[in-house]
From TrEMBL, chains A, B:
Residues 1-21, 251-303 are annotated as: Disordered. Gene3D superfamilies: Arfaptin homology (AH) domain/BAR domain (1.20.1270.60). This is Sphingolipid long chain base-responsive protein LSP1. Pfam families: Pil1. It comes from Exophiala spinifera. One of its GO terms (biological process) is eisosome assembly. Keywords: Coiled coil, Phosphoprotein. One of its GO terms (cellular component) is eisosome filament.
Length: 303, 303
């Protein structure tokens, strides 16, 4: 069996293929300004922005298609097709709104990833500083083994190591907490969009059943559309079910509640922690915008 | 209450707004080549193509994000983050594949809309011909009321009317049948994507619960990751549930089964129908490609 055990290994295969094509390995220089440590997440956050843009486009196009369908139905001069296509259009608009709401929720998840990226960037100088002092000591020991500067540098190194220990603890604390938070939100948003679109699509199918497609012979006149009220009822039922929708999720548990503002466990005042003179700045969480756009199309359609 | 009763009326408001901005009312001349009758659907089919493109992009970006997440996790040198991020990546890849499968299904729905558009285009000449002969008769009656050509034209008009009656019956038969078929497929595809992504997202949330985010103090070493087997089990459970997924849809009923190849009810041989010399060509249905791409990421990840 030559199958990959994770997407990681598969991904490497892809890279190997790319390399053989002699394409540029760098597509933009912007990522290069990022600290080594935060480069990968920086790129992921950028790609997520493209994905979000695609969902926004999909939502916008769906709204446009909904209007066009309704318009087309009217132009057929067939009462039944006109009424049903208009109401299918309402359902499609609402499905489009859900794509947009999903995109907004993904923005919130993306903001959480940025908090990890920010702490990664801020931990980098602490690692660099430690490595730099170590380096200097090694060089000096080789060139001037008796230099008094070595003692000073070794004292500096102890301080740098202490500071770095704090920074690394803050990094792992934030990383684990925020990666859980980010994908908790991502998956919850996926489920929300899915459950709401299922509601809408099911009512959409009921609308279709109100359209009689029995073929007619030339000269036959179609009967007037008899299901106007039923069709309106389907829409208002859909609206009601959408508005009373509530998430039912298996919770993602977190033990990060004990994380103090200094990104250490609450009450932790180890000597190492207090020895650090410059704790890494706490990344500020992004405010979550109230993304409540659901049911507006149905609401106006059934008013 | 000044709320719209349908998206149709809302759409008109939008148009009014656009007009006041003095933008071009024509954005492309291509639609103009279409018969008047099929213009609206022609445009809708084009817009749907953009929507499909957006879903393809979303799927592609999601796959890319999945790889990047796995890669990032590996670079953290944290066993737990590495394992969980790789497996979350597998779930995300599969979610991306579902976007792509959805786009493929939308292509099939779009092909059905094209069948309506095609019959609309083919009915147009029949309407034009009838109108043209009527016109000629009116002009002649005014200019040369005693012309013998009037009788000939009136005979031609009877034939044109008969042909048009057939064409219009074919149009309504195909329109009603295919619009139901198209949105039956569209809504079924929406539900399929939604149900499968719900399965994936729920297992994704279980994976998150295997990552302990209890904060550590500086100098503490994280315990080795103990849930490797559990995480693998979550993925294989997800794979199994995805592979055994089956649609459970309220059926959309059709009475179009009695539609003969001549687009008339089976057995209908009315005089009008047989009087028509040139029946409108039957649009050929598009083959549905077997779109079975589900579960490949999970399969290789749990192999």
């Amino acid at each position: 069996m030559n199958r990959a055990l994770s997407i990681r290994s598969r991904k490497k295969d892809d890279h190997a293929k790319e390399a053989s094509k002699h394409t540029f390995s760098i597509s933009t220089l912007r990522g290069m300004q990022q600290a080594e440590l935060s480069k990968k997440l920086y790129k992921l956050i950028k790609t997520e922005n493209h994905a979000i843009g695609a969902y926004e486009t999909a939502g916008r196009e769906r709204l446009s298609i909904a209007s066009q369908l309704s318009d087309w139905g009217e132009s057929t001069n067939d009462d039944a097709v006109s009424d049903i296509s208009d109401k299918i259009g309402v359902i499609l608009s609402e499905i489009g709104e859900q794509e947009d709401l999903f995109a907004q929720n993904l923005e919130d998840y993306r903001a959480i990833l940025k908090q990890i990226r920010n702490i990664e960037s801020s931990v980098q100088p602490s690692r660099d500083q430690k490595a730099k002092i170590s380096d200097e000591i090694q060089k000096l020991k080789y060139k001037e083994p008796s230099s008094p500067k070595i003692v000073t540098l070794e004292q500096e190194l102890v301080r740098a190591e202490a500071q770095n220990l704090v920074a690394e603890a803050q990094l792992t604390n934030i990383t684990r907490q925020k990666i859980k938070e980010a994908y908790d939100l991502h998956f919850a948003a996926t489920i929300e969009r899915a459950e709401k679109q299922i509601i809408l699509a099911r009512y959409g199918r009921r609308l279709l059943n109100l359209l009689d497609d029995t073929p007619v012979v030339p000269g036959d006149v179609r009967q007037p559309f008899e299901h106007v009220n039923e069709a309106r009822k389907v829409l208002s039922d859909a609206e009601h079910e959408l508005q009373t929708w509530e998430p039912h999720l298996e919770p993602v548990h977190s033990n990060a509640g004990g994380l103090a503002p200094n990104l250490m466990p609450t009450g932790a005042t180890s000597e190492t922690a207090s020895a650090a003179t410059e704790p890494v700045a706490t990344p500020t969480p992004t405010e979550k915008p109230a993304a409540e756009a659901q049911g507006t199309h149905l609401e106006s359609a059934t008013a």
